[in-house]
Design goal:
Enolase-like, domain 1, TIM Barrel, 7-stranded parallel sheet, 13 helices, globular, glucarate dehydratase activity, Enolase-like_N, glucarate dehydratase, Mandelate_racemase_N_dom
Length: 418
């Protein structure tokens, strides 16, 4: 079989609307996701797809500028590509981890298309055909009439019931770190009551002090928790927290590479590692990390960084081949109003999404939607992930004490150009 050679790399930023702005401990998703779609083309006419977060001229230039490194490269030579653009010492000056991830996605997509098999078959063969997901609940800004707002325990419980009825979720994650911990504790208890015996998880994105985390963790020990995700920042504090709270700890922030994973094996601060196909630099590093976790008895889950259908496909293929994936995956996906892939958004069935069956990643771009949402990006521009549009001038500390006021309803300026 004649080798393929890379001849072109293209990047297209897109903006896809969300049902409502989503709040988190560092700021917000301002009512939309901004993502960059990556296409790698070969000399035999194959086009592989990738995706990563953010977008704009600098992201496009960073991706397309790598053609000088990769023109003529065989997309099957993935380890060579990793060192060509992500040499670990050179990366101290050029951190290209997420760009490498998008290019790896695209090369795996090309390989699967060329061989006529899915990515999950390339990576060892799937052991599951669908991946269960958690509901991933956020505090949210509403519109002027209060629609879509989630600020109170009652609103959170209602939103959980809607998502459970619509998509069949039986695991539920609350993204916290927005309001004072005792208010969020009241909300979390209301969530538990609303979903009966379903599984739960809480993630305040490292916003809590150790004292607040101990108080919150002890208060929820009797609930049906999967794990306690990033309540405090850093392995030393997470290790200390485990002495006081009898819930497994989890992270997607302080263990996102192999050096940190090795440190966690030695220190055992975290029980469950959330693997993100972009944060770790691709699907293959995630599978490698999952194998290390299996060896040392660490749990594995799947992290979401705000995906459209291309990255969701990478999460599905990764989840399909990892034996020790024992938790429902995270996904922001159900908050999106649309997608850029042919056929529209993938469907949940009983809280799970089927792993795509086609060759490669099994998804293709809907060119009309890519054009529409690229134009929307040009119209609206980007937004600052680490700022809250409802609190101009605000920024968080770690640990934080600058909480939003749960008694105050806000309708923020989302930075839309007029």
């Amino acid at each position: 079989m004649k080798a393929s050679r890379i001849v072109a790399i293209r990047a297209t930023p897109v903006t896809v609307p969300l049902e409502a702005p989503l709040l988190h401990s560092n700021g917000a998703h301002w009512g939309r996701f901004v993502r960059t779609l990556v296409e790698v083309e070969t000399d035999d006419g194959l086009v592989g797809l990738g995706e990563f977060g953010g977008g704009g001229e600098s992201a496009t230039a960073a991706v397309e500028g790598l053609i000088g490194y990769l023109k003529g490269h065989d997309p099957f030579r993935l380890e060579a590509m990793r060192f060509a653009i992500c040499n670990p010492t050179a990366s101290l000056y050029n951190n290209r981890t997420q760009i490498h991830a998008a290019l790896e996605f695209a090369c795996l997509d090309i390989m699967g298309q060329k061989l006529g098999v899915s990515v999950s078959e390339l990576l060892g063969g799937r052991i599951r055909d669908e991946i269960p997901f958690a509901s991933y609940l956020f505090f949210r800004y509403g519109d002027a009439d209060g629609r879509h707002e989630v600020r109170t325990p009652e609103q959170l419980a209602a939103q959980a019931r809607v998502l459970k009825a619509s998509h069949g979720f039986t695991s539920h994650k609350l993204k916290g770190g927005v309001y004072p911990p005792r208010h969020e504790l009241e909300c979390y208890r209301a969530l538990a009551d609303a979903v009966g015996g379903d599984r739960l998880r809480y993630d305040p994105n490292s916003a809590l002090s150790l004292g607040d985390a101990i108080e919150f963790g002890r208060a929820i020990e009797g609930l049906n928790n999967d794990y306690y995700e990033d309540p405090v920042w850093g392995m030393p504090q997470l290790s200390r927290l485990r002495e006081f709270v009898r819930i497994p700890t989890a992270t997607n922030t302080v263990v996102i590479n192999f050096e940190q994973l090795a440190a966690n094996v030695a220190q055992r601060a975290v029980d469950v590692i959330l693997l993100d196909t972009t944060f770790w630099g691709g699907i293959r590093p995630c599978i490698k990390a999952a194998g290390i976790c299996e060896t040392f008895g660490l749990g594995v889950a799947v992290h979401s960084s705000g995906e459209l259908g291309v990255q969701l496909a990478t999460m599905l293929h990764m989840g399909a081949v990892v034996p020790n994936l024992s938790y429902a995956a995270d996904a922001h996906y159900h908050h999106l109003l649309d997608d850029v892939i042919v056929g529209g958004p993938m469907r949940y069935r009983d809280g799970a999404i089927a792993v795509p069956e086609g060759p490669g990643l099994g998804v293709r771009l809907d060119r009309d939607k890519v054009r529409r949402y690229h134009e929307l990006f040009l119209e609206l521009g980007g937004y600052a992930y680490d700022r809250d549009p409802g609190r101009p001038g605000w920024y968080p500390l770690v640990p934080n004490a600058r909480w939003a006021d749960p008694a105050q309803r806000l309708v923020p300026d989302l930075g839309v150009k007029r």
